[in-house]
Write a structure and sequence with these properties.
The chain has 328 residues and is mainly alpha-helical. Helices cover 51% and strands 9% of the residues.
């Protein structure tokens, strides 16, 4: 299997476990070890001046603690609830039947929710059966071994639009996305991420190319919220979208918002000065900083350093780079 098709970075990344383990699946000894490990990771309360005089909880939870197994289990369960790992949940709460000319199909509403923190941006997209089917076929090309036991809802000759079949598929697709996301290599693959964001990004960039900046901005801002959730393992993957949003805000004469998104993009490019967007982004940020009365000297210095190292006959503007994205 070709792992090069996964989104990766040159620098080592901290891996986030995405497997879901139920409480009943953990043995009693594992419970104790986890409780002790979590407890020992916190400093003694009496190191905090505000807690002087309080009992030392680290001693009570040491490996020689007199806590019973049940108490350890309860403690560990509480700590798990307090420090939840950030992961994604997929919900498919509803579906609608679409009829267009001679075609008829079902659109499933997919909600992507980030756990572990309060998610104010619950991302919502719509996909039809053929979209899920295409995703499954594409993933099988790269992850056939991992997906050996994964089932996919089959097409039926009749009854596709009955409430019973639609409800069955809602549950099946929800379970399918959960299983796929639990596989690290699948979760980080371009094909998996594209399923969630590519249609909207293509639409947004199409509006940008057509000069419909307000509409493009609305679509791209929604898309990047989901894109960020899916690409936390590699922040560089959203640079192009951030820059497209900068272009939209700039053309809509919103320099302050353009600058804010530009700062986010520059932050992700700190160690990637060779990135195709870096020079063009610096030039745009210098213009915006001057317009807003911000410090542009440091940006100008960086730009001069980059240009001194390179000898490019043609340097594209940020807008020229943006309109080249997602062109078939």
């Amino acid at each position: 299997m070709d792992r090069d098709q996964c989104y990766t970075t040159e620098e080592p990344q901290l891996e986030t476990r995405t497997d879901i383990t139920t409480f009943s699946e953990i043995t009693q000894s594992d419970e104790e070890e986890n409780a002790i490990e979590i407890a020992n990771s916190f400093p003694p309360d009496n190191e905090n001046p505000e807690n002087v005089g309080l009992p030392d909880t680290s001693e009570a939870l040491s490996p020689h603690s007199s806590m019973t197994t049940k108490e350890l289990q309860e403690y560990w369960g509480n700590e798990k609830r307090r420090y939840r790992q950030v992961r994604l949940l997929f919900e498919i709460p509803s579906a609608r039947i679409v009829e267009q000319h001679f075609s008829k199909y079902v659109m499933y509403k997919v909600i992507v929710i980030q756990t572990g923190s309060f998610d104010v941006n619950k991302s919502v997209i719509e996909r039809r059966y053929s979209d899920f089917e295409k995703l499954h076929k594409n993933l099988l090309e790269d992850f056939s071994e991992e997906m050996e036991d994964v089932t996919f809802p089959k097409k039926t000759l009749t009854g596709n639009f009955t409430e019973e079949i639609i409800n069955e598929r809602k549950l099946a697709f929800k379970d399918y996305l959960r299983i796929m996301y639990s596989m690290k290599y699948v979760q980080r693959s371009k094909k998996f991420i594209d399923f969630f964001v590519r249609p909207e990004l293509e639409e947004g960039y199409g509006c940008l190319r057509g000069g419909q900046y307000a509409k493009a901005l609305e679509i791209l801002v929604q898309a990047i919220a989901l894109q960020e959730k899916l690409t936390k393992h590699n922040p560089l993957l959203i640079v192009s979208t951030l820059c497209a949003i900068v272009v939209c805000h700039k053309d809509l004469e919103n320099p302050r918002s353009a600058y804010e998104y530009g700062e986010k993009a520059l932050l992700r490019l700190q160690l990637r000065t060779s990135h195709k967007y870096y020079t063009a982004l610096l030039e745009t940020m210098i213009t915006l900083a001057y317009e807003l009365g911000k410090d542009f000297v440091s940006l100008q210095k960086k730009l001069e350093e980059i240009k001194a190292k390179r000898h490019q006959a043609k340097v594209f503007t940020l807008k020229e780079l943006a309109v080249r994205e997602y062109v078939h």
